[in-house]
Amino acid sequence: MKIFQKEITLAAKPRGFHLITKEVILQCPFIAEISTGMFSVFIKHTSASLSINENADPTVRGDLERHFNKMVPEGQAYYKHTSEGPDDMPAHIKAALLGNNIQIPITSGELNLGIWQGIYLCEHRDDGGERDLVVTAFGN
């Protein structure tokens, strides 16, 4: 069994859903060394999340952002965690809904994503800053 782990820092991105598949793969050449295994991506933040979704049509990313903003609105009177700005508590809720890690099978040295699937960084803050990911690949 081979095990690889690496921490990746993504440059700050604006609020929204960002396709980061190529960026992650470029920083993880060790994927090619695994015939059959798993690839895990974990985000070390509580106001951004990860997801796998549509990789071809960018309107999907815009639609997701608009829907999440409507589903989890800013400025609700019942929010008590408000010291870091009006986008912070909604960002924590969105991150809790989507999650902080994804798993993708590795087959023949490549991520075995569906033809229309890609890895998303879901940035829920207006100015979230750089985002740190821990990637782990293991298998034979």
From TrEMBL:
Say which family it is in: Belongs to the UPF0047 family.
Q: Which Pfam families match?
A: YjbQ (PF01894)
Protein name, entry field: YjbQ family protein
> InterPro entries from the xrefs?
UPF0047_YjbQ-like, YjbQ-like_sf
Q: What is the lineage of its organism?
A: Bacteria, Pseudomonadati, Bacteroidota, Flavobacteriia, Flavobacteriales
Domain of life assignment:
Bacteria
Q: Which residues form a coiled coil?
A: none
